[in-house]
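Lab notebook, bench 4. We co-purified these components, and the gel suggests they stay together. Before we commit to crystallization screens, I want a quick structural picture of the whole thing.
Request: model the full complex, all chains together.
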Amino acid sequence: MARVLVPVAVLDGGTVSPGLMSLLGTVDVTVLGYHELPEQTPPDQARLQYEERATDALEDLREEFETAGGAAEHRLVFTRDREQTIARIAEETDADAFAISGMTGDVDRLLVSLSDGVATERVLSFVAALIGGREIGVTLFLAGDESGQRRLEDAAERLRGDGIDVRTEFVPDDPAFEALMDVLPGHDAVVVGENAPSLRSLVFGSESERLASASVGPVLVVRGGESSSE
Amino acid sequence: MSDRPGGTNAGGEAPDAEPVVETDEATLTADAELERTLGLAGGLAIGIGTMIGAGIFVFPGLAGGRVGTAATVSFTIGGVVALLVALPTSELATAMPKSGGGYYFVSRGLGTLPGTVIGLSLWFGLVFATAFYLVGLGFYALDALAEVGVTVAASPGALVSAIAVLAGIGFTLLNLTGTENAAKLQNGIVALLLSMLVAFLGFGLLEAFGVVDAGTPPGEAANVWEVVPIMSVAALVFTSYLGFAQVATVAGEMKSPGRNLPLAMIGSVLIVTVLYVLTIFVATDVFTQNRLLEAGETAMVEVGRQLLGPPGALVIVVGGLLATMSSANASILSTSRAIYGVSRDALLPGWASRINLRYGTPHVALGMAGGPIVVLAATRQVQLLAEVASFLHLIMYGLMCVALLAIRRDRPEWYDPDFVVPGGPVVPVFGALASFGLIAFMQPTSIAVGAAVIVATAGWYFYYARDITLRGAL
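Here is the predicted assembly.
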C-alpha cells in the first residue's frame, strides 16, 4: 500500500485539514510531528519540555487519520532543519509522497503537475493509488516544449485506463510556477514530483512564501525518480 | 556502577535518564527524535569562529610585546597542548556524541564531584572567555572610531568598557529573542575572515622575506628566547585555543559524529595554530617589541597600516570587529549549552534549563551566561579574563584526558568510540600533564581567581548534588 508522510508543525498549531485527511483515506499515513528550534536551544532541552504535549497532539491526529481510513503512525522530531527531517523520515518510512498541509474541503479534482523532469510513472501510479476508485477527477498539467505534449497525452491515457476522469492542460514554454497558479482555480489539491525545481518554493519556501501560496490547498510531493526516463 | 545516572539533588530532582539510541542522522529516544543538523563545515566554523578572534586580533601585540618573535614558539606550544587535548576529546566525543561536551565526559568518566566542578567551571570559564572577547571587541570598536576620525580624548578606557557591556547585553538579548539563523551568518563570517587573513598573511610573509618591500622599519622585535617568558606567554595566549572543545558541546547536533567530530576539532586546532604562528611572525617582523607593546590589544591594526597603508588598517579593524563578535556570540551559545548540560543531570535546579515559550529559547541559561559576562566585561582586565578563562578550561582539558584513561580502564559496555587515539595512554597522559603544567606559568592573581571558582563549585557539589551518581552512566 502507498504511504504518505504528513509533516505537521505540531507545537506551532499545525493541523491537517479535514479535506486532506479524507483524501489520504486510501493510503497509509505517517504523521511527522516536527518542531523547529532556534540554534540557541539544544534539541534535547526542547524535548524535555515539549515531548508530552507534542505526543498528545500527534496521538489525536493519528486517531483522526485512522478514522478517515488508512493505517496511521506518528513520529516526533525536534530539528533545526525541516527539509532535512522530512527527507530523512520519508526515506526511513519508505513513503511514496509527503503532504504539505493546506486548507481544503472535500477534494473533487486534483491538479497533477508533470512539469520539469519528474518521474512520470511514479507520479501516475501514486495518483491512481491515492484515488483508489473514488470519484475524484484529475487535471494533468505540463509546462514545457512540444515533446512534453506527447508525454502528457500518454499519461492521460494511462490514468483513463484506471477509470479516472482526466483533463489535460498543456502550456508551452511558460514559467511553470505562474502557469500552474493560473490553472489552479477549480482544483482542491496539487500533486507534484519531488524533482521539480520550479515548484520548490511551494514546498520548501520560507514561511511567507508558503503562506502566500496557502490558497493552493494541500500539496502532495511524490518522492524519488532522479530523471524522467524512469 | 550502573548504566543510568541515579540519585537526587538537594531539591529532590533526579537526572534525566532517558535511554537513547544514537545514529548518524539523529538521536532516538523512546518517543521522539532529535535531528542532527550540523555538518563538518558548521563544526569547523564553531571551532575556528570561536578561536580566531583572540589569537589573531588581540594577542599579537601583548605576546609579541613581551617576547618578540619567540612568541611564535608560545603559540606553537599552545597549539600542541590543544592538539594533545583535542585527540582524547575526539575519542570521548565519538563514544558519547552528546551535548555538554567536556562536562559530560568528565562526569561519566570520573564521577559526580569532578563532573560538578568541571560543569560549573566550564560555565564560568566560558563567561570569562566571553567577557575577554567582548573587551577585545571594545578595543577594536575604539580603533574603528579612530579610523573614521572620531577620537575620544577623555577616557578611552571607560568607552571600551561601555562598548563591551553594551555588546554583551546586545548579544544576550539577540540570542534570547532571535529566531534568525545566525549559524549561516557565522559560517559566512568565518569564511570571510579566513580569506582576509590568508591574503593579509601572504603579503606579510612576502614582505618579511624581502620579496616585496612595504617600507617597514628595519628593526625587528628584539626576541626573548628564554623558557619561562615563552611559557608564560603560552599560558596567556592559550585562550586563543579554547574553541575546539566548544565543538564538543554541540556533539549531539552533529551529523555523522564519528567522522565529523574528530575532523572538526583537530582540523580547527591545526588551522588556527598555523594562522596564529604566521600572524605573530608577521607582526614581530614588522614592529619592534616596544611598538607592539605600545599598540597593545589592537597592535594588528598598526601592523596592517604599516604593511598596506590605511586600507590595511581598515581591513584589520573590520576583521577584528567581526572576529571578536563571532567569538563572543559563539561563546554565549556554548555557555547556555554548558548550563543545560549540568542542569539536565540535576547538578543545577531544573528551572535553569527552562525554555521560553514565546521565543523557544533557553532564557534562564542565557541570562545566567549574559549577566556575569557583562559584569566581567566592565572590568576591562584583558589579561586576567584571558588567563582565568584558560585556567578553568585547562583544568577541564586535563581532567578530560584523565577521564579518557579512566573510561578506557573501566570499559563500560557502551564505550565504543569511532575514533581511537593511537599510541595507547601516551597522548592523554601528555595532554593531562601539559594542561596542568601550563597553569603553573600563569600570573598568581589568575591562578587565585581560578582556584576560588574551583573551590566554590566543589562546595556547591557538597551542598547540592552529593547524592547524584553519574560515573559510568551513559
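Chain A touches chain B at residues 37-51, 54-55, 75-81, 84-85, 88 (CB under 8 Å). Worth comparing against the SEC data before the next meeting. Residues 26 and 70 of chain A are 6 Å apart (CA to CA).
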